[in-house]
Design goal:
Chains A, B: Residues 6-136 form the Nudix hydrolase domain. The structure is a homodimer of 229-residue chains. The first copy, chain A, has 229 residues and is an alpha+beta fold. Chain A folds into 2 domains: 7-135, Nucleoside Triphosphate Pyrophosphohydrolase; 141-208, Arc Repressor Mutant, subunit A (Orthogonal Bundle). Helix content of chain A is 21%, strand content 27%. The first copy, chain A, has 4 helices and 10 strands. In chain A, strands 1, 2, 3, 4, 5, 6 and 7 form a 7-stranded mixed β-sheet that branches. In chain A, strands 8-10-9 form a 3-stranded antiparallel β-sheet. In chain A, helix 3 (156-167) packs across helix 4 (173-182). The longest helix of chain A is centred in the middle third of the chain and has 18 residues, at 125-142. Chain A starts with 5 loop residues before the first strand and ends in a 21-residue tail after the last strand. At the A-B interface, strand 1, strand 5, helix 2 and helix 4 of A face strand 1, strand 5, helix 2 and helix 4 of B. Strand 1 of chain A pairs antiparallel with strand 1 (6-18) of chain B, so a sheet runs across the interface. Chain A binds a DNA duplex (27 and 27 nucleotides) through helix 4.
Chain lengths: 229, 229
DNA sequence: ACAAAAGTGTTGGAACTACACCCATGC
DNA sequence: GCATGGGTGTAGTTCCAACACTTTTGT
């Protein structure tokens, strides 16, 4: 019999990377019961001496080089009593983002899977993955979170592809460039990329002005008066 | 000795209400160790047959009439191993909002406290309260979350006061009205309020068009093309 | 020259801020 | 009338989407 009211607490990471046509999520294949053979999110038990963010970073480090993870944020708690077989488990899920040019080494049991064609997932990990993608989509609209999807330096076409993969619809390169530069999110590097084999004008290269999350679309009426920053 | 890796899981509610000059939070005064006499957020143990949202509503119902709580959303997990005395506890915090005209009956040990002058709080509950206010401020900018702060029917001046209390700075009534009506968030009721004792034109009364959270300020470049909704 | 890829100019419209002005009431 | 609180008109600005057009490359 378990101690009353004490619950196993897990942390989970939805690690997303934008492939040309779809977001991909990092999953590993379970070798043991329950749900043997199904694909699960990286994660594990919350340790006695760490908070949830430290814990998720520790568990993630077993699957992927943390240096490749450009952004981590808390997503949500999943606590349905029937989210998995007994004994009960509560999980704090995180969203992690890996730039599209990173291809970190992963263990044999671990692989990237297209989010639009997930394999059979363990527990509620499919639902958690979709929640992570939803969060990313929302934040692309009003923050500079794209920095965590893009290489250090990139062309507007590349960036357009990343936004399109995340959002699931076409994005105008022209307007993406103008909006993001107007807001100071993007800055030109001055250099250009070599054209492809079929020619074309060389693309100007940009970088994100900041590599930390920032809200870029505040509701101006509600900004403090007087002093601009 | 405790079962290894099993942790007590609490839920907590930051319940905010806008008073004329400051946000207020609902706190109760602890009668037992630890932290006897300090003020704590409503909440308690996660039960065996409920998820965290059901749990926080159950605990909250002991302090306040749930019918008065217009909006509840998950805030964040607080899990620092040293956030309180042993044994360790992890808490999922929620943000709850009560309209300014509601004055629900509360138990003797429970009272509203100005957030800008919190009493000595138990554990990390002061920090959690401030996180809740931060979330509210951010969401006022790009959602219709004001519905949960305002009475069913209100004048623009009243609404301006609620926004100003939440944000901590002056808000223009003129522009607040125009932006919110343009976005379809506010609709006029057609009736007016009686003027105060010193006269003045009677204020037109409005209501929120929806009483559920909705994002009102999407980044248009990133909207799906073709079909408008 | 031509195709391909990238970037710029431009136009019409919508959204926003600030400020002046007008309206309806109590005294 | 006058003070008070509330609402509207409007000008100037910025922001934005769409689309045509130009630039720079490879073949």
């Amino acid at each position: 019999m378990e101690a009353e009211g004490l619950i196993a607490h897990d942390v989970l990471a939805v690690v997303l990377r934008m492939a040309p046509s779809s977001p991909e999520v990092l999953l590993w294949q379970r070798a043991r019961e329950p749900h043997t053979g199904r694909w699960a999110l990286p994660g594990g038990r919350l340790g006695a001496t760490e908070d949830v963010e430290a814990s998720v970073r520790r568990h993630l480090a077993e699957k992927v080089d943390l240096g490749e993870v450009a952004h981590v944020e808390q997503l949500s708690v999943f606590s349905d009593p029937h989210r998995g077989p007994a004994p009960r488990r509560v999980a704090t899920a995180f969203l992690g983002l890996v730039p599209s040019d990173a291809d970190p080494a992963v263990p044999d049991d671990t692989a990237w899977h297209r989010v639009d064609a997930l394999p059979e997932t363990a527990f509620d990990h499919g639902e958690i993955t979709r929640a992570g993608l939803e969060r990313l989509r929302a934040k692309l609209s009003y923050t500079n979170i794209g920095f965590a999807l893009a290489p250090e330096v990139f062309s507007i076409s590349e960036l357009r592809g990343l936004y399109a993969a995340a959002l699931g619809h076409r994005v105008s390169a022209t307007n993406l460039q103008r909006v993001l530069t107007r807001r100071g999110v993007l800055v030109p590097t001055g250099s250009t990329a070599a054209p492809g084999p079929s020619g074309g004008r060389p693309a100007a290269l940009f970088r994100f002005s900041e590599r930390h999350l920032r809200v870029t679309d505040p509701f101006a009426t509600l900004r403090p008066p007087e002093r601009d920053c």
